Amino acid sequence: MNIVPNRIKPPKPTQDLEKAKRDLDEFGICLIDRALGTEQLTRLRNRLYAAADDDVRLKRPSSSSGGDHDSNNQRIWGLLNRGQEFVDLVEDPRSIELLKYLLEWPFLLSSISANIAGPGHDGMVIHADQLFVPEPWPARPQGANCFWLVDDFTADNGATHVAVGSHRLNRMPKDDAEAESYFVPLEASAGTMCVMEGRIWHRTGCNVTANERRAGIFAWNVRKIYRTQENWFLSLNPLVRQGASEDLLWMLGYRLDTFFGHVNGYDPI
Q: Which class for 159: exposed (0-12), middle (13-18), buried (19 or more C-beta within 10 A)?
């Protein structure tokens, strides 16, 4: 029987990708220290909060199928269409290398969105990102989240609660109480990049601050056999596709590893 100790702390942030890969094996999660430089982080934060304000003004949908619990949490969708700053994130070679390690190449970018937990947010439902996969889960993850901390994540402002090591159980929690017994807050500085494999139990924490918003950008990626959450062929701005790197074209499904997804026998581009 696979026994995982309760309340394991997340690994310390590192800039060593080989150490990060070992952390993914042991903990199911890794943190890349200072992945975003000061200027890049400032541009990204400004662009994200401007997009959030635009969504409020235009009354765009801001929740995700009930999983976000309350109106104090805002989702911003379709980030590849909202600025080059977001395209730069998914094209980051460090992110791609770590995702290749978990998912093999080519993998698919399933979606990229932001989650802003505002004051009074009461937390998200407990879940694992690959809950669509029948249990018991395979020995290797079927998806992985790469996310970037736009603001500091603290226990008070809604830092993600993570059941470190739960990937080794290869299943969803038996009930919420079991997951609660494993959870620790993922506290780290703005500019940190985190990769978390799809079997890890987690949720957005409660924001009990008076006036802090906590923003993170989440890119969910899957093995090539799965359908993506975002239908890139309909939603993606053609200008983004035209300027995409070769890696990103593979991640969006515009290059063919097998014969599936072709257009009259050719790549769909």
A: buried
